[in-house]
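re: ur question from yesterday

yeah so i grabbed the chain u mentioned. its 331 aa long if i counted rite. heres the sequnce exactly as i have it in my notes:
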Amino acid sequence: MLYVTTRSNCETYTAAKTLTANTAADGGMFVPFQIPSLPTDTLRGMSQEAVISAVLGLFFRNAPSEQTVLACLGGTPFRLQNIDRKITVVQLWNNRIRAFDKIEYALYGKLCLEVPACAKTTQWAKIAIRISVMVALLANEDREVDIAVNAGDFLTPMAAFYCKEMGLPVGKILCVTNENSSLWEFFTHGELSCGSAVLPTNMPELDVVLPHQLERLIFAVSGLFAAKEFALCAEKGKAYKYEDIYELSQDFAVSVVSTQRVPSVIHRIQRSNGYVLDTYSALTFGGLQDYRATGGEIRQTLILSDYSPVVHRGAVSSALGVPEFKLSDLI
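ran it thru and got these structure tokens back, copy pasting raw so excuse formatting
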């Protein structure tokens, strides 16, 4: 596959380039020259690792085999756990490290057979790996499924958007933020204050005021000129005004949840369902409940969980009122 950037469609790049850098010389982010279509009939009925291998092969020359993918997953497919009405938590962390970013980096390393791997997974590789995972989860679905995720750097929502463009039955993409709620302003009013200060919380991955990955979304929906305008405002810390917000609202919704609610959500779900949420998934769950309470659709929804509760054992144990050493007994 060939790639262009969000700031120029005149020069093309190989997939190998996207594995060694986040941006091109023009400062633009790598995007596929053409979004591939999914061979849904072929993927249906395949194992998770086989689907991930096949989808990565759409984006990269050296896609890992399904056996290699399974090894990167720690030998265990992703586990799905129903915890409430039409809400399923997808445990993406079934490995010894108990965190999806370790699986992600392992898969990234297998893609880098012809180029040296970076210290961190490149942004496009992260998106492509997330796409492959979502396809593996939804390849056998016939009905629309909503996806609820932490917004953060906007990489995961962007992957969900590409999945929808590729033909997966993705309904609404719900982006949940903490007190840093600039994303809500963007999707609600089409405005983004690129120079605002970050409000530090105890959930640092969500302490983002300017999600730079929005440049990819704006490019996909509104084209090169709009993406360049966004990039210029972001660079100069100026206010950005987006005109096509109605079109985005058909695919996206945003919920803002205070981090102070997280302990009560963790406690309530454990008491009512016997399931222990990690802190980030608890915030997402709270945002999903708020979205539904204010008139949002009530479709089957996947919450993508990147961390085992043991990763943030202090906060989770405190919410449950149990000693840290007993937390593993509840999971």
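noticed a couple things. The mean pLDDT is 94. also The first strand starts at residue 2 and ends at 5.
anyway ttyl
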